[in-house]
Amino acid sequence: MTFYDVLSLCAGLVFFLFGMNTMSDGLEKAAGGKLEIVLKKITSNIFLSITMGAVITAVIQSSSATTVMLVGLVNSGLMSFQSSIGVIFGANIGTTITAWFLSLVGVESESFLIQMVKPQNFAPILAIIGIAFMMMSKNDKKKIIGTIFVGFTVLIYGMDIMSDSVAGLSESPAFADILLKFNNPLFGILIGAVVTAVIQSSSASVGILQALSLTGAISYNMAFPIILGQNIGTCATGLISCIGAGTGAKRVATCHTLTNVIGTLILMPLFLVANNFLDGYFDENFVNPATIAVMHTIFNFATVIILAPFTKLLAKLTEKLVKDKKQPDGEKVKVVYLDERLFRSPSVAVMECDNYTSQMAVIAKVTILKALELLFDYNKEDAELIKENETILDTYEDELGTYLVKLSKEALSEADAKRVSRMLHTIGDFERLGDHALNLKKTAKEINEKHIKFSPNAEKELNVLIQAITEIVVTTTLVYEKNDLSLASKVEPLEQVIDSLTSEIKAHHINRLQSGDCTIELGFVLSDLLTNCERISDHCSNIAVAVIEAQNNTFDTHNYLNQIKYNDEAFKKTFEEYNAKYDLHA
Protein backbone atom coordinates (compact mmCIF):
# COMPACT_ATOMS: atom_id res chain seq x y z
CA MET A 1 0.00 0.00 0.00
CA THR A 2 1.63 3.24 -1.18
CA PHE A 3 1.51 6.71 0.33
CA TYR A 4 -1.02 7.68 -2.31
CA ASP A 5 -3.20 4.74 -1.33
CA VAL A 6 -3.19 6.03 2.25
CA LEU A 7 -4.22 9.47 0.98
CA SER A 8 -7.01 7.87 -1.04
CA LEU A 9 -8.18 5.95 2.04
CA CYS A 10 -8.29 9.22 4.04
CA ALA A 11 -10.10 10.99 1.19
CA GLY A 12 -12.60 8.14 0.98
CA LEU A 13 -13.24 8.36 4.72
CA VAL A 14 -13.72 12.15 4.48
CA PHE A 15 -16.23 11.73 1.65
CA PHE A 16 -17.97 8.97 3.58
CA LEU A 17 -18.30 11.07 6.75
CA PHE A 18 -19.37 14.18 4.82
CA GLY A 19 -21.96 12.20 2.86
CA MET A 20 -23.24 10.53 6.03
CA ASN A 21 -23.54 13.87 7.83
CA THR A 22 -25.25 15.57 4.86
CA MET A 23 -27.69 12.71 4.37
CA SER A 24 -28.44 12.50 8.11
CA ASP A 25 -29.10 16.25 8.33
CA GLY A 26 -31.37 16.08 5.29
CA LEU A 27 -33.33 13.14 6.64
CA GLU A 28 -33.76 14.92 9.97
CA LYS A 29 -35.02 18.09 8.27
CA ALA A 30 -37.45 16.01 6.23
CA ALA A 31 -38.74 14.42 9.44
CA GLY A 32 -39.04 17.87 11.03
CA GLY A 33 -40.67 18.13 14.44
CA LYS A 34 -42.22 14.69 13.97
CA LEU A 35 -39.14 13.21 15.68
CA GLU A 36 -39.99 14.95 18.95
CA ILE A 37 -43.68 14.05 18.64
CA VAL A 38 -42.69 10.39 18.30
CA LEU A 39 -40.28 10.57 21.25
CA LYS A 40 -42.87 12.23 23.49
CA LYS A 41 -45.36 9.44 22.77
CA ILE A 42 -42.96 6.90 24.19
CA THR A 43 -44.38 5.19 27.26
CA SER A 44 -43.22 2.58 29.73
CA ASN A 45 -43.96 -0.07 27.10
CA ILE A 46 -40.42 -1.28 26.37
CA PHE A 47 -41.30 -2.87 23.01
CA LEU A 48 -42.93 0.33 21.74
CA SER A 49 -39.89 2.32 22.88
CA ILE A 50 -37.50 -0.08 21.12
CA THR A 51 -39.53 0.12 17.91
CA MET A 52 -39.63 3.91 17.97
CA GLY A 53 -35.91 4.14 18.73
CA ALA A 54 -35.12 1.83 15.81
CA VAL A 55 -37.37 3.76 13.41
CA ILE A 56 -35.97 7.17 14.41
CA THR A 57 -32.37 5.97 14.07
CA ALA A 58 -33.10 4.29 10.74
CA VAL A 59 -34.65 7.55 9.53
CA ILE A 60 -31.80 9.85 10.55
CA GLN A 61 -29.11 7.17 9.99
CA SER A 62 -27.22 7.87 13.20
CA SER A 63 -27.45 6.19 16.60
CA SER A 64 -25.10 8.88 17.95
CA ALA A 65 -27.56 11.59 16.89
CA THR A 66 -30.42 9.71 18.55
CA THR A 67 -28.43 9.34 21.78
CA VAL A 68 -27.44 13.01 21.80
CA MET A 69 -31.10 13.90 21.18
CA LEU A 70 -32.09 11.75 24.17
CA VAL A 71 -29.41 13.39 26.33
CA GLY A 72 -30.83 16.79 25.39
CA LEU A 73 -34.47 15.79 25.96
CA VAL A 74 -33.78 14.13 29.32
CA ASN A 75 -31.60 17.04 30.43
CA SER A 76 -34.42 19.41 29.42
CA GLY A 77 -36.88 17.47 31.57
CA LEU A 78 -38.96 16.50 28.53
CA MET A 79 -38.37 12.77 28.92
CA SER A 80 -37.56 10.57 31.90
CA PHE A 81 -34.42 8.46 32.02
CA GLN A 82 -36.55 5.30 32.38
CA SER A 83 -38.39 6.09 29.14
CA SER A 84 -35.13 6.57 27.25
CA ILE A 85 -33.77 3.05 27.86
CA GLY A 86 -36.00 1.38 25.29
CA VAL A 87 -35.10 4.08 22.75
CA ILE A 88 -31.40 3.35 23.38
CA PHE A 89 -32.01 -0.33 22.62
CA GLY A 90 -33.88 0.61 19.46
CA ALA A 91 -31.15 3.02 18.35
CA ASN A 92 -28.63 0.18 18.38
CA ILE A 93 -30.90 -1.84 16.09
CA GLY A 94 -31.71 1.07 13.77
CA THR A 95 -28.04 1.88 13.16
CA THR A 96 -27.50 -1.50 11.46
CA ILE A 97 -29.43 -0.31 8.37
CA THR A 98 -26.39 1.59 7.05
CA ALA A 99 -24.25 -1.56 7.07
CA TRP A 100 -26.88 -3.36 4.99
CA PHE A 101 -26.86 -0.56 2.41
CA LEU A 102 -23.07 -0.70 2.23
CA SER A 103 -23.07 -4.50 1.92
CA LEU A 104 -24.59 -4.10 -1.55
CA VAL A 105 -21.27 -2.59 -2.71
CA GLY A 106 -19.75 -6.06 -2.91
CA VAL A 107 -22.57 -7.61 -5.00
CA GLU A 108 -21.19 -9.31 -8.14
CA SER A 109 -23.31 -10.40 -11.10
CA GLU A 110 -23.55 -9.95 -14.87
CA SER A 111 -27.30 -9.31 -14.63
CA PHE A 112 -28.18 -5.68 -15.39
CA LEU A 113 -30.93 -5.60 -12.72
CA ILE A 114 -28.62 -6.98 -10.02
CA GLN A 115 -25.86 -4.61 -11.08
CA MET A 116 -28.27 -1.69 -10.67
CA VAL A 117 -28.91 -2.81 -7.08
CA LYS A 118 -25.32 -1.86 -6.28
CA PRO A 119 -25.32 1.61 -4.70
CA GLN A 120 -22.34 2.83 -6.73
CA ASN A 121 -24.32 2.12 -9.91
CA PHE A 122 -27.65 3.75 -9.04
CA ALA A 123 -26.13 6.56 -6.92
CA PRO A 124 -25.26 8.72 -9.99
CA ILE A 125 -28.96 8.73 -10.95
CA LEU A 126 -29.85 9.91 -7.44
CA ALA A 127 -27.11 12.55 -7.64
CA ILE A 128 -28.51 13.94 -10.92
CA ILE A 129 -32.03 14.09 -9.45
CA GLY A 130 -30.67 15.57 -6.23
CA ILE A 131 -28.71 18.34 -7.94
CA ALA A 132 -31.72 19.16 -10.14
CA PHE A 133 -33.93 19.48 -7.05
CA MET A 134 -31.36 21.61 -5.20
CA MET A 135 -30.67 24.00 -8.09
CA MET A 136 -34.01 24.27 -9.88
CA SER A 137 -36.75 23.65 -7.33
CA LYS A 138 -38.18 26.41 -5.16
CA ASN A 139 -39.93 23.83 -2.99
CA ASP A 140 -38.13 23.41 0.35
CA LYS A 141 -39.09 19.72 0.65
CA LYS A 142 -37.66 18.93 -2.80
CA LYS A 143 -34.44 20.74 -1.90
CA ILE A 144 -34.14 18.63 1.24
CA ILE A 145 -34.74 15.45 -0.78
CA GLY A 146 -32.04 16.64 -3.19
CA THR A 147 -29.63 17.09 -0.27
CA ILE A 148 -30.38 13.55 0.94
CA PHE A 149 -29.74 12.08 -2.55
CA VAL A 150 -26.46 13.97 -2.99
CA GLY A 151 -25.32 13.06 0.54
CA PHE A 152 -26.04 9.39 -0.14
CA THR A 153 -24.08 9.54 -3.40
CA VAL A 154 -21.05 11.17 -1.74
CA LEU A 155 -21.21 8.52 1.02
CA ILE A 156 -21.26 5.67 -1.50
CA TYR A 157 -18.38 7.10 -3.53
CA GLY A 158 -16.43 7.58 -0.31
CA MET A 159 -16.98 3.87 0.38
CA ASP A 160 -15.88 3.07 -3.19
CA ILE A 161 -12.69 5.13 -2.85
CA MET A 162 -11.85 3.39 0.44
CA SER A 163 -12.40 -0.02 -1.17
CA ASP A 164 -10.15 0.80 -4.13
CA SER A 165 -7.40 2.22 -1.90
CA VAL A 166 -7.13 -0.99 0.16
CA ALA A 167 -7.54 -3.39 -2.77
CA GLY A 168 -3.81 -4.19 -2.88
CA LEU A 169 -3.49 -4.95 0.83
CA SER A 170 -4.29 -8.65 0.36
CA GLU A 171 -0.86 -9.11 -1.24
CA SER A 172 1.01 -7.07 1.38
CA PRO A 173 3.09 -9.09 3.92
CA ALA A 174 3.06 -6.11 6.29
CA PHE A 175 -0.74 -6.05 6.26
CA ALA A 176 -0.78 -9.80 6.94
CA ASP A 177 1.48 -9.27 9.96
CA ILE A 178 -0.82 -6.56 11.33
CA LEU A 179 -3.84 -8.80 10.89
CA LEU A 180 -2.22 -11.47 13.06
CA LYS A 181 -2.62 -9.10 16.01
CA PHE A 182 -6.36 -9.00 15.40
CA ASN A 183 -6.55 -12.70 16.29
CA ASN A 184 -6.46 -11.41 19.87
CA PRO A 185 -10.13 -10.53 20.67
CA LEU A 186 -9.20 -7.88 23.23
CA PHE A 187 -7.02 -6.08 20.69
CA GLY A 188 -9.81 -6.22 18.11
CA ILE A 189 -12.36 -4.77 20.58
CA LEU A 190 -9.90 -2.01 21.57
CA ILE A 191 -9.13 -1.02 17.95
CA GLY A 192 -12.83 -1.02 17.00
CA ALA A 193 -13.70 1.16 20.01
CA VAL A 194 -10.83 3.64 19.55
CA VAL A 195 -11.34 4.15 15.79
CA THR A 196 -15.10 4.62 16.22
CA ALA A 197 -14.65 7.01 19.15
CA VAL A 198 -12.19 9.12 17.13
CA ILE A 199 -14.39 9.45 14.02
CA GLN A 200 -17.59 9.44 16.14
CA SER A 201 -19.52 7.23 13.74
CA SER A 202 -20.05 3.50 14.04
CA SER A 203 -21.49 3.53 10.50
CA ALA A 204 -18.22 4.94 9.16
CA SER A 205 -16.05 2.49 11.09
CA VAL A 206 -18.23 -0.42 9.96
CA GLY A 207 -17.89 0.96 6.41
CA ILE A 208 -14.09 0.92 6.74
CA LEU A 209 -14.24 -2.68 7.95
CA GLN A 210 -16.51 -3.62 5.04
CA ALA A 211 -14.06 -1.98 2.63
CA LEU A 212 -11.17 -3.96 4.17
CA SER A 213 -13.20 -7.16 3.93
CA LEU A 214 -13.14 -6.84 0.13
CA THR A 215 -9.42 -7.72 0.28
CA GLY A 216 -10.49 -11.23 1.31
CA ALA A 217 -8.07 -11.18 4.23
CA ILE A 218 -10.41 -10.47 7.18
CA SER A 219 -11.59 -13.59 9.03
CA TYR A 220 -14.69 -13.90 11.20
CA ASN A 221 -12.42 -14.18 14.22
CA MET A 222 -10.90 -10.78 13.40
CA ALA A 223 -14.10 -9.00 12.36
CA PHE A 224 -16.45 -9.90 15.23
CA PRO A 225 -14.37 -8.38 18.08
CA ILE A 226 -13.86 -5.22 16.00
CA ILE A 227 -17.65 -4.95 15.50
CA LEU A 228 -18.17 -5.28 19.26
CA GLY A 229 -15.60 -2.56 19.83
CA GLN A 230 -17.29 -0.33 17.25
CA ASN A 231 -20.56 -0.55 19.16
CA ILE A 232 -18.76 0.48 22.36
CA GLY A 233 -16.88 3.28 20.59
CA THR A 234 -20.07 4.84 19.24
CA CYS A 235 -21.06 5.64 22.85
CA ALA A 236 -18.26 8.22 22.99
CA THR A 237 -20.43 10.86 21.29
CA GLY A 238 -23.14 10.52 23.94
CA LEU A 239 -20.59 10.54 26.78
CA ILE A 240 -18.99 13.71 25.42
CA SER A 241 -22.37 15.38 24.92
CA CYS A 242 -23.44 14.79 28.54
CA ILE A 243 -20.48 16.74 29.98
CA GLY A 244 -21.98 19.53 32.06
CA ALA A 245 -25.47 18.04 31.76
CA GLY A 246 -27.79 16.98 34.56
CA THR A 247 -27.99 13.61 36.24
CA GLY A 248 -30.68 12.23 33.91
CA ALA A 249 -28.69 13.09 30.79
CA LYS A 250 -25.54 11.48 32.20
CA ARG A 251 -27.54 8.36 32.95
CA VAL A 252 -28.69 8.16 29.31
CA ALA A 253 -25.11 8.21 28.02
CA THR A 254 -23.94 5.81 30.74
CA CYS A 255 -26.80 3.39 30.05
CA HIS A 256 -26.00 3.39 26.32
CA THR A 257 -22.38 2.50 27.14
CA LEU A 258 -23.39 -0.17 29.67
CA THR A 259 -25.74 -1.77 27.13
CA ASN A 260 -22.96 -2.30 24.60
CA VAL A 261 -20.32 -3.26 27.17
CA ILE A 262 -22.61 -5.89 28.77
CA GLY A 263 -23.53 -7.17 25.30
CA THR A 264 -19.83 -7.53 24.49
CA LEU A 265 -19.09 -9.34 27.77
CA ILE A 266 -21.87 -11.84 27.05
CA LEU A 267 -21.52 -12.37 23.28
CA MET A 268 -17.72 -12.44 22.95
CA PRO A 269 -17.34 -15.58 25.14
CA LEU A 270 -20.28 -17.19 23.30
CA PHE A 271 -18.53 -16.48 19.98
CA LEU A 272 -15.30 -18.08 21.21
CA VAL A 273 -17.19 -21.12 22.50
CA ALA A 274 -19.00 -21.45 19.17
CA ASN A 275 -15.70 -21.16 17.27
CA ASN A 276 -14.20 -23.92 19.42
CA PHE A 277 -17.31 -26.08 18.94
CA LEU A 278 -17.05 -25.59 15.14
CA ASP A 279 -13.36 -26.59 15.11
CA GLY A 280 -12.03 -23.09 14.36
CA TYR A 281 -14.45 -22.34 11.52
CA PHE A 282 -14.32 -18.59 12.29
CA ASP A 283 -10.49 -18.60 12.16
CA GLU A 284 -10.28 -20.11 8.68
CA ASN A 285 -13.18 -18.45 6.86
CA PHE A 286 -13.30 -14.86 5.66
CA VAL A 287 -15.96 -12.20 5.75
CA ASN A 288 -17.42 -9.92 3.11
CA PRO A 289 -19.52 -6.72 3.46
CA ALA A 290 -22.74 -8.73 3.76
CA THR A 291 -21.49 -11.01 6.54
CA ILE A 292 -20.21 -7.96 8.45
CA ALA A 293 -23.71 -6.46 8.20
CA VAL A 294 -25.13 -9.76 9.49
CA MET A 295 -22.74 -9.85 12.48
CA HIS A 296 -23.41 -6.21 13.26
CA THR A 297 -27.15 -6.89 13.23
CA ILE A 298 -26.90 -10.11 15.26
CA PHE A 299 -24.87 -8.38 17.98
CA ASN A 300 -27.35 -5.52 18.38
CA PHE A 301 -30.48 -7.67 18.20
CA ALA A 302 -29.02 -10.25 20.59
CA THR A 303 -27.99 -7.55 23.08
CA VAL A 304 -31.50 -6.09 23.08
CA ILE A 305 -33.16 -9.51 23.43
CA ILE A 306 -30.88 -10.37 26.37
CA LEU A 307 -31.21 -7.04 28.22
CA ALA A 308 -34.83 -6.04 27.47
CA PRO A 309 -36.29 -8.27 30.26
CA PHE A 310 -33.85 -6.68 32.73
CA THR A 311 -34.53 -3.02 31.95
CA LYS A 312 -35.29 -2.17 35.60
CA LEU A 313 -32.06 -3.80 36.79
CA LEU A 314 -30.10 -1.93 34.11
CA ALA A 315 -31.75 1.31 35.24
CA LYS A 316 -30.84 0.62 38.90
CA LEU A 317 -27.23 -0.17 37.95
CA THR A 318 -27.01 3.06 35.97
CA GLU A 319 -28.54 5.03 38.85
CA LYS A 320 -25.97 3.58 41.24
CA LEU A 321 -23.13 4.59 38.91
CA VAL A 322 -24.58 8.07 38.33
CA LYS A 323 -26.14 9.25 41.59
CA ASP A 324 -28.58 12.12 42.08
CA LYS A 325 -27.16 15.52 42.89
CA LYS A 326 -28.74 17.39 45.76
CA GLN A 327 -30.19 20.75 44.75
CA PRO A 328 -28.55 23.53 46.79
CA ASP A 329 -30.84 25.25 49.28
CA GLY A 330 -32.41 28.39 47.88
CA GLU A 331 -31.73 27.48 44.26
CA LYS A 332 -34.61 28.47 41.99
CA VAL A 333 -36.56 25.75 40.23
CA LYS A 334 -36.24 26.21 36.47
CA VAL A 335 -39.40 26.76 34.43
CA VAL A 336 -37.69 26.56 31.03
CA TYR A 337 -35.48 23.59 30.11
CA LEU A 338 -33.75 24.22 26.80
CA ASP A 339 -30.57 22.31 26.08
CA GLU A 340 -28.13 23.36 23.36
CA ARG A 341 -27.41 19.68 22.77
CA LEU A 342 -30.70 19.68 20.87
CA PHE A 343 -28.97 21.84 18.24
CA ARG A 344 -27.70 18.55 16.87
CA SER A 345 -31.33 17.96 15.92
CA PRO A 346 -32.48 21.51 15.03
CA SER A 347 -36.04 20.50 14.11
CA VAL A 348 -36.51 19.03 17.59
CA ALA A 349 -35.08 22.17 19.19
CA VAL A 350 -37.41 24.38 17.11
CA MET A 351 -40.48 22.37 18.07
CA GLU A 352 -39.52 22.46 21.75
CA CYS A 353 -39.18 26.24 21.59
CA ASP A 354 -42.57 26.41 19.89
CA ASN A 355 -44.06 24.33 22.71
CA TYR A 356 -42.64 26.73 25.29
CA THR A 357 -43.88 29.76 23.36
CA SER A 358 -47.36 28.20 23.25
CA GLN A 359 -47.13 27.71 27.03
CA MET A 360 -46.10 31.36 27.28
CA ALA A 361 -49.20 32.35 25.28
CA VAL A 362 -51.48 30.39 27.60
CA ILE A 363 -49.84 31.83 30.74
CA ALA A 364 -50.22 35.36 29.32
CA LYS A 365 -53.89 34.71 28.52
CA VAL A 366 -54.67 33.33 31.99
CA THR A 367 -52.82 36.22 33.64
CA ILE A 368 -54.71 38.89 31.66
CA LEU A 369 -58.10 37.27 32.31
CA LYS A 370 -57.36 36.99 36.04
CA ALA A 371 -56.32 40.65 36.12
CA LEU A 372 -59.58 41.70 34.43
CA GLU A 373 -61.59 39.73 37.01
CA LEU A 374 -59.75 41.49 39.84
CA LEU A 375 -61.09 44.89 38.72
CA PHE A 376 -64.52 44.07 40.15
CA ASP A 377 -63.70 41.19 42.52
CA TYR A 378 -60.29 41.69 44.13
CA ASN A 379 -58.64 38.80 46.05
CA LYS A 380 -55.07 38.27 47.23
CA GLU A 381 -54.70 34.73 45.83
CA ASP A 382 -55.29 35.80 42.22
CA ALA A 383 -53.21 38.93 42.75
CA GLU A 384 -50.27 36.78 43.87
CA LEU A 385 -50.78 34.42 40.92
CA ILE A 386 -50.59 37.37 38.49
CA LYS A 387 -47.34 38.52 40.09
CA GLU A 388 -45.84 35.02 39.87
CA ASN A 389 -46.96 34.56 36.26
CA GLU A 390 -45.44 37.91 35.26
CA THR A 391 -42.08 36.72 36.65
CA ILE A 392 -42.44 33.41 34.79
CA LEU A 393 -43.17 35.24 31.53
CA ASP A 394 -40.02 37.34 32.03
CA THR A 395 -38.01 34.14 32.46
CA TYR A 396 -39.56 32.58 29.37
CA GLU A 397 -38.66 35.60 27.25
CA ASP A 398 -35.05 35.72 28.52
CA GLU A 399 -34.43 31.99 28.08
CA LEU A 400 -36.26 31.61 24.77
CA GLY A 401 -34.80 34.78 23.28
CA THR A 402 -31.20 33.75 23.98
CA TYR A 403 -31.78 30.17 22.83
CA LEU A 404 -33.63 31.17 19.63
CA VAL A 405 -30.91 33.60 18.54
CA LYS A 406 -28.35 30.79 18.80
CA LEU A 407 -30.71 28.30 17.16
CA SER A 408 -31.34 30.64 14.21
CA LYS A 409 -27.66 30.27 13.26
CA GLU A 410 -28.07 26.50 12.77
CA ALA A 411 -28.91 24.88 9.42
CA LEU A 412 -32.70 25.09 9.51
CA SER A 413 -35.28 24.05 6.95
CA GLU A 414 -37.40 26.85 5.49
CA ALA A 415 -40.39 25.81 7.61
CA ASP A 416 -38.31 25.76 10.82
CA ALA A 417 -36.72 29.13 9.95
CA LYS A 418 -40.23 30.62 9.66
CA ARG A 419 -41.19 29.19 13.05
CA VAL A 420 -38.06 30.67 14.66
CA SER A 421 -38.85 34.08 13.12
CA ARG A 422 -42.43 33.87 14.37
CA MET A 423 -41.24 33.11 17.90
CA LEU A 424 -38.61 35.86 17.94
CA HIS A 425 -41.28 38.35 16.87
CA THR A 426 -43.88 37.24 19.45
CA ILE A 427 -42.18 36.32 22.74
CA GLY A 428 -41.60 39.99 23.58
CA ASP A 429 -45.30 40.74 23.13
CA PHE A 430 -46.34 37.79 25.31
CA GLU A 431 -43.98 39.06 28.01
CA ARG A 432 -45.44 42.57 27.73
CA LEU A 433 -48.95 41.15 28.19
CA GLY A 434 -47.74 39.95 31.60
CA ASP A 435 -46.51 43.45 32.42
CA HIS A 436 -49.90 44.97 31.58
CA ALA A 437 -51.67 42.30 33.62
CA LEU A 438 -49.49 43.32 36.56
CA ASN A 439 -50.42 46.97 35.95
CA LEU A 440 -54.13 46.04 35.93
CA LYS A 441 -53.59 44.15 39.19
CA LYS A 442 -52.15 47.31 40.76
CA THR A 443 -55.11 49.32 39.48
CA ALA A 444 -57.51 46.71 40.89
CA LYS A 445 -55.73 46.88 44.24
CA GLU A 446 -56.08 50.67 44.30
CA ILE A 447 -59.80 50.40 43.47
CA ASN A 448 -60.23 47.90 46.30
CA GLU A 449 -58.18 49.76 48.92
CA LYS A 450 -59.71 53.18 48.17
CA HIS A 451 -63.21 51.73 47.78
CA ILE A 452 -63.54 53.44 44.41
CA LYS A 453 -66.93 53.02 42.78
CA PHE A 454 -67.57 53.72 39.10
CA SER A 455 -70.82 55.28 38.00
CA PRO A 456 -73.39 52.87 36.48
CA ASN A 457 -72.69 54.20 32.98
CA ALA A 458 -68.90 53.93 33.39
CA GLU A 459 -69.22 50.41 34.79
CA LYS A 460 -71.43 49.38 31.87
CA GLU A 461 -68.90 50.77 29.37
CA LEU A 462 -66.01 49.06 31.12
CA ASN A 463 -67.83 45.73 30.98
CA VAL A 464 -68.15 46.09 27.19
CA LEU A 465 -64.44 46.92 26.92
CA ILE A 466 -63.47 43.97 29.14
CA GLN A 467 -65.52 41.61 26.97
CA ALA A 468 -63.68 42.88 23.88
CA ILE A 469 -60.28 42.53 25.58
CA THR A 470 -61.18 39.00 26.69
CA GLU A 471 -62.09 38.05 23.12
CA ILE A 472 -58.94 39.50 21.57
CA VAL A 473 -56.67 37.79 24.13
CA VAL A 474 -58.38 34.39 23.76
CA THR A 475 -58.38 34.72 19.95
CA THR A 476 -54.70 35.68 19.85
CA THR A 477 -53.75 32.67 21.98
CA LEU A 478 -55.58 30.35 19.58
CA VAL A 479 -53.95 32.10 16.61
CA TYR A 480 -50.49 31.28 17.95
CA GLU A 481 -51.25 27.77 19.18
CA LYS A 482 -52.89 26.69 15.90
CA ASN A 483 -50.92 28.99 13.58
CA ASP A 484 -54.34 29.93 12.19
CA LEU A 485 -53.91 32.65 9.54
CA SER A 486 -57.66 33.02 8.99
CA LEU A 487 -58.26 33.66 12.68
CA ALA A 488 -55.22 35.95 12.80
CA SER A 489 -56.84 38.24 10.23
CA LYS A 490 -59.69 38.92 12.70
CA VAL A 491 -57.42 40.31 15.44
CA GLU A 492 -56.50 43.64 13.86
CA PRO A 493 -60.13 44.67 13.16
CA LEU A 494 -60.96 43.94 16.82
CA GLU A 495 -57.91 45.92 17.93
CA GLN A 496 -59.22 48.90 15.95
CA VAL A 497 -62.60 48.56 17.65
CA ILE A 498 -60.90 48.47 21.08
CA ASP A 499 -59.00 51.66 20.21
CA SER A 500 -62.33 53.31 19.36
CA LEU A 501 -63.88 52.02 22.60
CA THR A 502 -61.10 53.43 24.79
CA SER A 503 -61.31 56.81 23.01
CA GLU A 504 -65.08 56.92 23.41
CA ILE A 505 -64.94 55.92 27.10
CA LYS A 506 -62.34 58.66 27.73
CA ALA A 507 -64.60 61.22 26.01
CA HIS A 508 -67.58 60.13 28.11
CA HIS A 509 -65.46 60.39 31.27
CA ILE A 510 -64.48 63.97 30.43
CA ASN A 511 -68.16 64.85 29.98
CA ARG A 512 -68.98 63.31 33.38
CA LEU A 513 -66.04 65.14 34.93
CA GLN A 514 -67.28 68.48 33.56
CA SER A 515 -70.80 67.85 34.81
CA GLY A 516 -69.52 66.87 38.27
CA ASP A 517 -70.62 63.22 38.02
CA CYS A 518 -67.02 61.97 38.33
CA THR A 519 -63.91 62.81 40.40
CA ILE A 520 -60.35 63.52 39.24
CA GLU A 521 -59.01 60.65 41.41
CA LEU A 522 -61.35 58.18 39.72
CA GLY A 523 -60.27 59.68 36.39
CA PHE A 524 -56.63 58.76 37.05
CA VAL A 525 -57.61 55.17 37.83
CA LEU A 526 -59.81 54.96 34.73
CA SER A 527 -57.03 56.43 32.56
CA ASP A 528 -54.54 53.76 33.78
CA LEU A 529 -57.09 51.03 33.16
CA LEU A 530 -57.89 52.22 29.62
CA THR A 531 -54.23 52.70 28.72
CA ASN A 532 -53.37 49.14 29.74
CA CYS A 533 -56.36 47.71 27.86
CA GLU A 534 -55.32 49.59 24.73
CA ARG A 535 -51.73 48.33 25.06
CA ILE A 536 -52.96 44.76 25.54
CA SER A 537 -54.89 44.94 22.26
CA ASP A 538 -51.81 46.44 20.53
CA HIS A 539 -49.63 43.49 21.60
CA CYS A 540 -52.31 41.04 20.50
CA SER A 541 -52.30 42.74 17.10
CA ASN A 542 -48.49 42.48 16.94
CA ILE A 543 -48.65 38.74 17.65
CA ALA A 544 -51.33 38.07 15.03
CA VAL A 545 -49.49 40.11 12.39
CA ALA A 546 -46.22 38.28 13.22
CA VAL A 547 -47.95 34.91 12.64
CA ILE A 548 -49.20 36.09 9.24
CA GLU A 549 -45.96 37.78 8.22
CA ALA A 550 -43.82 34.78 9.31
CA GLN A 551 -45.81 32.55 6.97
CA ASN A 552 -45.26 35.04 4.14
CA ASN A 553 -41.60 35.46 5.15
CA THR A 554 -41.95 39.27 5.32
CA PHE A 555 -41.96 41.48 8.39
CA ASP A 556 -43.02 44.89 7.12
CA THR A 557 -45.78 45.29 9.70
CA HIS A 558 -46.49 48.97 8.93
CA ASN A 559 -47.00 48.27 5.22
CA TYR A 560 -49.16 45.21 5.94
CA LEU A 561 -51.48 47.11 8.31
CA ASN A 562 -51.86 50.02 5.89
CA GLN A 563 -52.84 47.67 3.08
CA ILE A 564 -55.52 45.80 5.01
CA LYS A 565 -56.96 48.88 6.69
CA TYR A 566 -57.55 50.78 3.48
CA ASN A 567 -57.70 48.16 0.73
CA ASP A 568 -59.16 45.01 2.27
CA GLU A 569 -62.92 44.48 2.11
CA ALA A 570 -62.76 41.49 4.48
CA PHE A 571 -61.07 43.72 7.08
CA LYS A 572 -63.83 46.34 6.77
CA LYS A 573 -66.56 43.72 7.08
CA THR A 574 -64.98 42.15 10.21
CA PHE A 575 -64.45 45.61 11.74
CA GLU A 576 -68.12 46.47 11.24
CA GLU A 577 -69.20 43.17 12.84
CA TYR A 578 -67.03 43.79 15.93
CA ASN A 579 -68.11 47.43 16.04
CA ALA A 580 -71.76 46.34 16.22
CA LYS A 581 -70.99 43.62 18.76
CA TYR A 582 -69.22 46.01 21.15
CA ASP A 583 -71.40 49.07 20.74
CA LEU A 584 -71.43 51.17 23.92
CA HIS A 585 -74.90 52.45 23.11
CA ALA A 586 -76.50 49.07 22.50
Question: Layout of SSEs?
Answer:
Blueprint: H1 3-31, H2 34-40, H3 46-60, H4 63-75, H5 81-94, H6 96-103, H7 112-115, H8 119-136, H9 140-165, H10 173-181, H11 185-199, H12 202-213, H13 220-233, H14 235-241, H15 247-277, H16 281-284, H17 289-307, H18 311-321, H19 346-374, H20 380-407, H21 414-449, H22 456-482, H23 485-488, H24 491-515, H25 520-552, H26 557-567, H27 569-581
Helix pairs in contact: 1-9, 3-5, 4-5, 4-14, 4-15, 5-15, 5-17, 6-12, 6-17, 8-9, 9-12, 11-13, 12-13, 12-17, 13-15, 13-17, 14-15, 15-17, 15-18, 19-20, 19-21, 19-22, 20-21, 21-25, 22-24, 22-25, 24-25, 24-27, 26-27
Quick take:
The chain has 586 residues and is mainly alpha-helical.
What would you note in describing this structure?
- The chain folds into two domains: 3-321, no CATH class; 345-581, Methane Monooxygenase Hydroxylase, Chain G, domain 1 (Up-down Bundle).
- α4 runs parallel beside α14 (235-241) and α6 (96-103) runs antiparallel to α17 (289-307).
- It has 27 helices and no strands.
- The protein has helices spanning 3-31, 34-40, 46-60, 63-75, 81-94, 96-103, 112-115, 119-136, 140-165, 173-181, 185-199, 202-213, 220-233, 235-241, 247-277, 281-284, 289-307, 311-321, 346-374, 380-407, 414-449, 456-482, 485-488, 491-515, 520-552, 557-567, 569-581.
- It is an all-alpha fold and 586 residues long.
Strand content is under 5%
The sequence of SSEs as H and E is HHHHHHHHHHHHHHHHHHHHHHHHHHH
Which residue ranges are poorly predicted, with pLDDT under 50 across at least 5 consecutive positions? 328-333
Large-scale geometry: elongated
